Amino acid sequence: MRPRRTLPPAAPPAEQAWAPRAGDVISGQYVIQRLIGKGGMGAVVAAQQVPNGGHVAIKFLHPRLAGDARATERFFREAKATTLIRSEHVVRVFDVGKSEGGLPYIVMELLEGVDLGRLLDSGPLRIPDAVDFILQAAVGLATAHAAGIVHRDLKPSNLWLSQRPDGSSLVKVLDFGISKLSVDAEEDLKLTETQSIFGSPLYMSPEQIRSAKRVDFRTDIWATGIVLYELLTDALPFDADSAAAALAAITADAPASLVAIRPDAPPALEHAIAYCLEKDVNHRCPTLAELGRLLAPFASPIGRIAAEQLTRIPVPAVTTVAPATSAASLRYLGDGRATEAARVALARAMGVAKTRLTLLRGAASRDKLFRLD
Fold it and tell me: pLDDT category, 169, cuts 50, 70, 90?
């Protein structure tokens, strides 16, 4: 079972005070109503738009990052990426700007519901529900891919479950903040030159571990398989107790058996997930439409509609992806007691220039970032 979320330590008063408060007016047109959530990267609030009275969500960049040109660029990049995607399965963006205090913000649709990470707090999902949610998310991802956008950070907390007016489920993909825009390939390269490994490592493909800037849409297919496995088992196919061991498992080990944890899972469903988790990207499930075909037998009518929609979305061209790091070199690094020398070797194995590996822990034990300083 995956570790449960724990509340982070209370922040000092100065840290708590920066987020906009109820009653604050932003840019003369958004009245803050309540805080939805806050973390190390920023805060999200609910607001009412003046004068039309519409309700929206506003994401603010943390003031600690607002003065960083690259961080601000990545923040606004999310808005740019999202506006290029026309799908009911992707959160809509309405506006961007800076507050009177200089905080960058993005105005988005206000969603009711829960993210799939929170939903997993109640345990594994029914097979039809898990498959339906993944197929709907796949429609949003495939639409993004057709627009030249790779998400690169898919995980349960970035999938939002809400409802349509008729009460049926509606899944939306969130957080394109570290997405790769092929239409802006040169700028994407510049933004990745810091050698940071952006994303949540336990959901990253072997090729993304090696080079986040040299991946194509198939890295999202890998992450889709990871998320489906987790929705069905409340566990991960590649789990570990340390940063080095996690990266080693993804690159070198076979995924844990689905049916060993979920005995009612049909073999064909396990095959579909395993197809997503082929380490060689050229042997992986080639498209989300093909994944939809494989998953449709296990879906409800709503999920089968999504699978059919996937067949009508154009598939982008693939790019040349270098082979993943060798299994032998990473098995050694799987030891949780890895020394500084091992971390240096790991950095070199992933093809990056700098050598200190830092694990940044969020409030949720699986929402992690690796950074090379």
Answer: very high
Residue 73 CB burial class (10 angstroms; 0-12, 13-18, ≥19): middle
User: What tokens does 148 get?
Assistant: 């030249």
Q: What is the DSSP letter of 76?
A: H
What's the CA gap between 23 and 26, in Å, rounded? Answer: 10
Stated as kind and residue range, the H or E segment containing 47 is strand 42-49
Number of structural domains (the chain) is 2
Residues 73 and 124 in one domain: no
Cβ(274)–Cβ(255) below 8 Å: yes
**Using only C-alpha atoms, what is the Rg of the chain?**
20
Active site members: 153
Rounded Cα–Cα distance for residues 7 and 5 (Å): 7
Please give the C-alpha separations between residue 329 and each of 51, 142, 212, 326, in angstroms, as whole numbers.
61, 34, 20, 6
91 vs 211, residue with greater confidence:
91
The token pair that represents 185 in the structure block:
């390939």
Structural domain boundaries, residue 63:
16-109
pLDDT tens across 146-155, in order?
A: 998 899 899 9
